[in-house]
């Protein structure tokens, strides 16, 4: 596709419910990232995929958060038993990683999650 | 772990003046340093980047400098315009981890 696509763009959920956020990276991009941005705050690293594997899961805030990527393309970020502090914009980004270090990453529009 | 500090958190300048945003990084293996601009309610967008084998890079009114010894890098915007108003994020990527870590952001306001 032309850019990184995320869905849903907005999600309001009740505390305690599970949510799934989807990211479709730019076609041909092998690296995929998830970041979280709370209102007016910076970009918090969550997880990174190279192909289908996630070398670094250290940024996931708790065991309620998980992510997977299948087929080297679409990724899903799942938040179980949502809490109000999970309210934020979840940004996905992708980059073309062909063995050369230092590639620009390109962000999607984000999924705005509100937990009420 | 990796850490990127960014200063100032807010910056107000008059149109036409220059703006400078500074970042420091902790991981000496960092080798890639992009800068992103985020307008209100929009996605962060790459505006310029620099790799560790280069000390300075320019693109029209924007320039970035890198001091590897001091682990500092800076964004310079000259002849600022109101449309430059946004939040700017620096970032550093470690050669060892491929993880891109962002600074806390600088809110730039350019007054006409």
Give a brief rundown of this model:
The complex is a heterodimer of chains A (116) and B (112). Chain A is mainly beta. Chain A has strands at residues 5-7, 10-13, 19-24, 31-37, 44-50, 53-56, 65-69, 75-79, 88-95, 106-107, 111-115.
Describe the protein in words.
The complex is a heterodimer of chains A (116) and B (112). Chain A has 116 residues and is mainly beta. Chain A has strands at 5-7, 10-13, 19-24, 31-37, 44-50, 53-56, 65-69, 75-79, 88-95, 106-107, 111-115. Chain A contains no helices and eleven strands. In chain A, strands 2, 4, 5, 6, 9, 10 and 11 form a seven-stranded mixed sheet that branches. In chain A, strands 1-3-8-7 form a four-stranded antiparallel sheet, with no helix packed on it. The relative contact order of chain A is 0.33. The model of chain A has no long low-confidence stretch (mean pLDDT 91). Chain B has 112 residues and is mainly β. Helix content of chain B is 0%, strand content 59%. Chain B is built from no helices and eleven strands. Chain B has strands at 4-7, 10-14, 19-25, 30-38, 45-51, 56-59, 62-67, 72-77, 86-94, 100-102, 106-111. In chain B, strands 2, 4, 5, 9, 10 and 11 form a six-stranded mixed sheet that branches. Chain B has a five-stranded antiparallel sheet with strand order 1-3-8-7-6, with no helix packed on it. The termini of chain B are far apart. The model of chain B has no long low-confidence stretch (mean pLDDT 93). Chain A binds chain B through residues 31, 33, 35, 41-43, 45, 48, 50, 55-56, 58, 91, 97, 101-110, and chain B through 1, 31-32, 34, 36, 42-46, 49, 51, 89, 91, 93, 95, 97-105.
